């Protein structure tokens, strides 16, 4: 009798464990990763530091984020805070290989030699000896310079100094042009995406090419936080509007890195792994699309 009971209990436990694991594998967390076309991975969630004031403000934001569990920082030479990112990383005491650092070549530094020099400068600022991801900030400098810069990036990968290279603000025609001469494909295209700028066609094109999509300005820089459709969902899920927007990005599979330099928001922006928007509510947000850009839009440039 007790043998039978034991067998029933063991079976029940096995079934529960099976379902738990199935569920768990579908669940997102702050350390969830996205697989790139070169076999490497990138955390799906991180911190952006555009307009985080260089110096103490930027350094503190990054340090708080790392303490909160963020493991990916998106900066750029143009943000003038690479030094602060590097300082925070050192102060955090977290092993280098556990944090994913991404920076970008400034438009004014495009061209072969200039890009190599810009890379040296960024590495010195960051205090790193290898970089996780280096992006061309935009296609704006034109076809000749962006080609030269890309070839410089490929060389840095071959030297083992950069793990992954990608582009930002590239439209379909820029990607087509790049694919004609690259010997290393970009792993990501970093473009502005949120419910008011969904870029459905460009996203589909990137996915067809196996280029991961990084959705920048996921909070639309805070400019749409009073949209009634968003506020309704915030009430329904008992979450902040910003948390609803970040969840929308994650559930679309985008890599996302909201910017804040306030401790409270850095924490709440990461508190998005304990709820899920249902399909109808994802659709409500998808339908907000109105091609609303919050900054520049180089994807349309020649
Ligand atoms: N490649 C490119 O061309 C490009 C362009 C733009 C952005 N990006 C990248 O994408 C990152 C994010 O985009 P973003 O900085 O443009 O804008 P964002 O993340 O969409 O929004 C940031 C703004 O929202 C505020 N905010 C943050 N959390 C909030 C919350 N929980 N509730 C209400 N307001 C909140 C921030 O203010 P506080 O800081 O005061 O909290 C800031 O003003 C950038 O930092 C950068 O890494 C790349
Ligand atoms: C960059 O740094 C490397 C190693 O320190 C050096 O060999 C190279 O000449 C530098 N390149 C430029 C363009 O400054």
TrEMBL record:
PROSITE patterns hit by this protein: ALDOKETO_REDUCTASE_2
Alphabetical list of InterPro entries matching this protein: AKR (IPR020471), Aldo/ket_reductase_CS (IPR018170), NAD(P)_OxRdtase_dom_sf (IPR036812), NADP_OxRdtase_dom (IPR023210)
Domain NADP-dependent oxidoreductase: 53-290
Annotated Pfam families: Aldo_ket_red
Signal peptide feature range: 1-21
Sorted UniProt keywords: Signal
PANTHER family for the chain: 2,5-DIKETO-D-GLUCONIC ACID REDUCTASE, ALDO_KETO REDUCTASE FAMILY PROTEIN
Protein name listed in UniProt: NADP-dependent oxidoreductase domain-containing protein
Organism of provenance: Basidiobolus ranarum
